[in-house]
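Shape is hard to put into words, and the shape of a protein is harder than most. The fold becomes a row of whole numbers, each drawn from a learned catalogue of backbone shapes. The outcome of that step, for a single protein, is printed below.
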Amino acid sequence: AFSTGVGSTDMGCGMITGQAWFKVPSAIKVVLTGKPSKWVSGKDVILHIIGMIGVDGALYKSMEFAGPGVSTLTMDDRFTIANMAIEAGGKNGIFPVDDITLEYVKGRSERPYEVYEADEDAEYDSVVTIDLSTLAPTVACPHLPENTKTVDELSDVKIDQVVIGSCTNGRIEDMRTAAEIIKGKKIADGVRCIVIPATQSVYLQCIKEGIAEAFVEAGAI
């Protein structure tokens, strides 16, 4: 499925005419190998890539992810990576369909669908290879997402506010990871922690699993 963000003008024209204008983008192929370590998620993967190619490294291009490393990523990881392709200037991010994808779609789509794959002789503007096993938790520092550093490259940083959520990190896996770290602890004095589940179903799952309770008891909002 090809999806991309639009502005209010594009949306208005689409609602009136049922059409939108796009150039067919060229593509960058990102080959993923290896398996990420415990604390490395899809957010770390895409931040690492943006740090490599810059915020305009994929300008108006489609970022196509491939390779054996894809099978080690959860659907939540893939959503985050595809979602943040825009932060590298990309028109969208695309993953191949595998058993994990088909299992996710099951029960979520009642319409018949067709699976498309890249042509064997597909041409790419460039090919980037990343070994997931070499990645560390990664932080985007001010003032652009391309200013990335791994956690071991950062000294102590005073934090005023923490947001657990957004379009890239409000999924149940994110909530579980945050709760695992925060459970039994208290938010530091002078720090505000805001939790935003991405959907009502994620919020409900947080309640069922005791995650919401862990956040509230720690002092999060």
Observations:
- The radius of gyration is 19 Å.
- Residues 102 and 115 are 10 Å apart (CA to CA).
- The mean pLDDT is 92.
- The first strand starts at residue 27 and ends at 33.
